[in-house]
From TrEMBL:
This is o-succinylbenzoate synthase. Keywords: Lyase, Magnesium, Menaquinone biosynthesis, Metal-binding. Pathway: Quinol/quinone metabolism; 1,4-dihydroxy-2-naphthoate biosynthesis; 1,4-dihydroxy-2-naphthoate from chorismate: step 4/7; Quinol/quinone metabolism; menaquinone biosynthesis. The lineage of its organism: Bacteria, Bacillati, Actinomycetota, Actinomycetes, Micrococcales. GO terms for molecular function: magnesium ion binding; O-succinylbenzoate synthase activity. It catalyses: (1R,6R)-6-hydroxy-2-succinyl-cyclohexa-2,4-diene-1-carboxylate = 2-succinylbenzoate + H2O.
Amino acid sequence: MTEPAQRDPEPIESTRPIPRENGRPGPAPDGEIPALDLEQLLEKAIVVDLPLTVRFRGVTRREAVLLPGPRGWGEFAPFLEYDDAEAAAWWRACLEAAYLGFPAPLRSEIPVNATVPAVAPERVPAVLGGYGEDIVAVKVKVAERGQGVEEDEARVAAVRAALPEARIRVDANQGWTVDQAVSALRRLSRYDLEYAEQPAPGVDGLYAVREALHRDGVTVPIAADESVRKAEDPLAVARAGAADLIVVKVAPLGGVRRALSVVEQAGLPAVVSSALDTSVGLSAGVALAASLPELPYACGLGTGALLARDVTEAPLKPEHGKLPVRDYGPGSLEVRGLVVDDARRTWWLDRVRRVHALLEPGPGSGPEPGQQPLEWR
């Protein structure tokens, strides 16, 4: 992607909720998004383009739409390859943050893992250095296209050498076949893996990997990610007994409340993770993690360390392996030098218009006479 021309606006003041619950935005009284005039919303939207410190998920930059609302800032940042139907959940999550706020927290801090992309082993110490001291857990990306298990093992070994006491989990992003996953996890199990995230595609693939490892006496728990957030039925993996835990992300599941419902119904331990969000999006993940009755694993919410620039004056990055739980919705955003050019802004706002039309109560950019508020179940 070529460098976009930059527009440097004055910092935007967001409206804050009054009153707050435990210092955080409380839900709207009726628990519903009010009918919205979309075009008025989009006039206030900010579209940003952030550089990353390292290539991640095949990208070196991250674009996002930031939306101010009466409860704070919302973020809409589905990856570019996602179609409108998949991106609609991300818009729903953005509206929830801006117009409903988040549930009251049950804890004051969230343990988080460091994330190591599919880099060469000699780069591992530098990546870990971006997460500060007292790293308690590390997620290592594996099964990168064009790489083999030898590269994966070298990366995992480098993490183990750098952090002998940390918990290590690997994430294949469903990049292995069942046979490849079983073979690779047998090999990587010597590094005392905490779990393997989405080692193969689909619920059936996860079930097959989990059963094969159990038969072989290989103790590597299986976590479902894509089989939850990309599935028509996010609970199918739990019903099938295909995973030991689930990974939940706010935006792909349509907001904090919907993610909480998935965790409750699944009945499995949950790890809250990010989708390479800005600090605005990460604050929604923190709200979800803070609202879960139990939080047995460190969460994947430390990815702010992968951003070379962020949109807040105080970026949401881990300190001593944890994130504090507080209202991270900024009173103003620091976006100078990050705002996209007119062409990219138009592209993103057109995308918002399309996905907004997919949400109930129906198509249209503004409330029609007698239109009902958007339901939030």
